[in-house]
Amino acid sequence: MIRNRIRIPIIVMVVFFIWHPQLAGSTVSDTTKNEPNLIVIGAFFNGTQLTVSGKIGIENDVVVLVSGKQEALTLKKKGKALGLLWMNLGDVHFKKVPNLYILYSSKPNMESGASNPNTLEKLGVGFKYLKKEMEIEAPQAERDALANEFLKLKQKHGIYASHPGEIKFGQKNETEKSFTADVWIPPQIRVGEYEIKVMEIHDGRIVDTSKHQLKVKEEGIPLMLSSLAFNQSLLYGFFAVLIAVAAGLAMDFFFGTGKGGGAH
Amino acid sequence: MFHLYLPIAGNSVNVLLIFGLGGIVGILSGIFGVGGGFLMTPLLIMIGIPPTVAAASDSNQIVGASTSGTLAHYKMGNVDFKMGILLLIGGVAGGTLGVQIIKVLRQTGNADFLIKITYVLMLGFVGSYMFIESLQALRKKEIPATGPKRESKYAQLIGKLPWQTEFEKSGIRLSVLMPLILGVFVGILAAIMGVGGGFIMVPVMVYLLRMPMHVVVGTSLFQILFTCVDVTIMQSYSNHTVDFILALILLLGSTLGAQFGAKISKKLKGDQLKILLASLVLIVMVKMLLDLLLTPHIMLALKGGH
Fold first, then answer.
1. Looking at beta carbons, which residues of chain A come within 8 Å of B237?
2. Is residue A143 exposed (0-12), middle (13-18) or buried (19+ Cβ within 10 Å)?
3. B260: which residues sit within 8 A by CB, 6+ positions away?
4. Which of A204, B11, B64, B121 is the most core-located residue (most Cβ within 10 A)?
């Protein structure tokens, strides 16, 4: 029997924040212990890479899913007005859609390939499964098309991604092989808690699962500005105007036309 | 490399790209006296900034750009404060009215349609009229710094209005009612279209108030400064959509650009300025028309934006 053999050292490499550049939350573990995995969003955050690695059975495959909380979302639906002009023609409400969905798998064809066309869907992961699960307030006939467009939009924004066949296998012995997934976390990730789920697959079934928490938080200037913008919004507005006016005056002072003079 | 995280937009951007965008729009702002919101917001959306954040942060950067631009034009003697304040009073009243109109339209579900059609028609009309008029003027080799001054019925009509007063800076005599009424008109349109209104205000000043082009640019910037201060504070307070970091990078580029723009503006003749602005307005109009006619790649969109 294959039991809890997945070892997932998760290396959260990240991010320098302003004034005190330092690696944040960099942890390496070779056990299944839940390490405090953390992404710190500092002033220079531009996405980060997360390395998920471990060992699975020699004949098995592996799927890594990084996902966020389910939420409700309202988007604008495009349609033709007067049968000619494309424009936003009303709202569409989506429910039960995760705010991040990044999927890596060792096999290239687990979702759409000819040999195992719906493996991921049967396992409860992948875009086809998401389509089935999401709730859309729209007539049944439009539902499928809207779900497809939703997935396209999220992929365009970088917060949904599927990387089939992008988990690499390394050393192996008679019973086990090691794997590594270099998971790209986009800069659009929001502050909050996320889940890293690693599934070991054998013959179309999940034989082992491992879950890890991933925390994302802001520090330095981003944290300062977010809290000012959301907690003292009027002050933030005045501050934004003052700085803008000061920058305008400073530019004029350093670069401008001199004391009351005309253009050169 | 050169990336900075924007906490309100929730994305990171290339600083040089944003600085460059700000610079280009700042040059246009300085030359023509338009805020540039109708250009900048779509560009920001294209590089991945959420539409609501793009529009609000752009207003913030216009505050900086128009401060610098207004000052540069003031030093050249190109700001008619009397006219600017009257237009501003009308604009605030019109803007408030326009916001109410758009609320009613949203409830009836026709708002987006009306906004887009108004946009394309206004841009098309204003752009074509300015282009043709300036081209004719350039061909005749007349170099009038002011708009046409025929004794038309329009001229006779505005001459009969009460409370005529002298606008020394612009060198014209007009009824106080004219800038107030036209300010209301531009304010309504600007609120409906969700823009500062510079590209409507400039032709209104040139053709309906008959101000000299160089005074138009400085006065328009002065008026835009106050409009955008109001929008920045309101958007920060109500919607939390002003990304200060984004605005700061944009305005470093745009204030620098606005200074260049003001100098370029001084070197160009009135009709050359008008024909350039007309071309710019027509290009934006064609781009919007294509967006309306071509099938979109994705049939869903985020809410907000111009």
1. 233-234, 237
2. middle
3. B26, B27, B30
4. B64
Which chain B residues have a beta carbon less than 8 Å from that of A249? 67-68, 71
- Closest CA of chain B from A25, distance in Å: 19
- DSSP 8-state symbol, A117: T
- Name the pTM for this structure: 0.75
Joined tokens for residue B26: 């700042």
φ, ψ of residue A70 in degrees (nearest 5): -75, 145
Query: Cβ contact (<8 Å) for B301 and A46?
Result: no
Closest-CA residue to A5 (of A58, A72, A67) = A58
Q: How many CB pairs under 8 A join A and B?
A: 204
Give the span between the Cα atoms of B211 and B135, in whole angstroms: 19
| pLDDT for residue A257 is more than 80 | no
> Does the ipTM surpass 0.90?
no
- Distance, in Å, from the CA atom of A196 to the CA atom of B79, rounded to the nearest integer, reads 60
CB A263 to CB B5 under 8 A? Answer: no
Task: List Cβ neighbours of B195 (8 Å cut-off, separation of 6 or more).
Answer: B35, B37, B38, B306
| Cβ density class B65-83: b for 16+ within 10 Å, e for less | bbbbbbbbbbbbebbbebb
What residue spans define the domains of chain B?
3-293
pLDDT per residue as tens digits for the range B49-65 = 887 788 888 888 888 87
Tell me how crowded residue B282 is: count the other CB atoms within 10 A of its CB: 17
8 Å CB contact between B218 and B212: no
How is chain A split into domains, by residue range? 10-223, 232-264
- Chain B residue numbers touching A240 (CB-CB < 8 A): 60, 63, 232-233, 236, 242, 244, 247
- Per the DSSP assignment, residues forming a β-bridge with A178 are A55
